[in-house]
Amino acid sequence: MLARLLEDEYGLDDVEIGMATTFNRDLELESIDLVTLSGLLEERYGGRVNFAEFLAGMEFDEIIGLTVGQLVHYVVTSLKAAGAS
After folding, report:
1. Per-residue pLDDT, 14
2. CB neighbours (10 Å) of residue 47?
3. How far apart are CA 46 and CA 50, in angstroms?
4. What is the chain written as a DSSP string?
5. pLDDT tens-digit map of 30-52
6. How far is the C-alpha of 15 from the C-alpha of 3, rounded, in Å?
7. For residues 63 and 80, what is the distance between their CA atoms, to the nearest angstrom?
């Protein structure tokens, strides 16, 4: 999804993305890009993954330092929790 966002919005198709990649510093994504990513996550996972809620629980500095790995962990945890209920 992230690679799709980077390609669709910025024409970037050769960006290396790893678990330690940050959305702000490394990928230089802006808040509108996070909104777009939130929509992609909702499209894929429905209400089981609420990225906006995840971000709402963070301080500004935490959002600036958010990594792909943190998002992956959140998605996996959310899906497991949704499957258990």
Report:
1. 85
2. 8
3. 8
4. -HHHHHHHHH--------TT-BTTTTT---HHHHHHHHHHHHHHHGGG--HHHHHHTS-HHHHHT-BHHHHHHHHHHHHHHHHH-
5. 989 999 999 999 999 999 999 99
6. 8
7. 23
Q: Across residues 3-26, what is the average pLDDT?
A: 91
CA atoms within 13 A on the CB side of 10: 16
Report helix, strand and coil shares of the chain as percent, to nearest 5: 65, 0, 35
Instruction: Quote the distance between the C-alpha of residue 48 and its chain's center.
Output: 14
The residues pairing with 22 across neighbouring beta strands, listed in sequence order, are: 67
Instruction: Match 């959305």 to its residue by tokens.
Output: 23
Question: Which pLDDT does position 83 carry in this prediction?
Answer: 85
Structure tokens at 73: 């962990």
Which secondary structure element, helix H or strand E, spans residue 67, and what is its range? none
Run of H or E including 18:
none
Q: What is the pTM of this model?
A: 0.88
How far apart (Å, rounded) are the C-alpha atoms in residues 2 and 16?
11
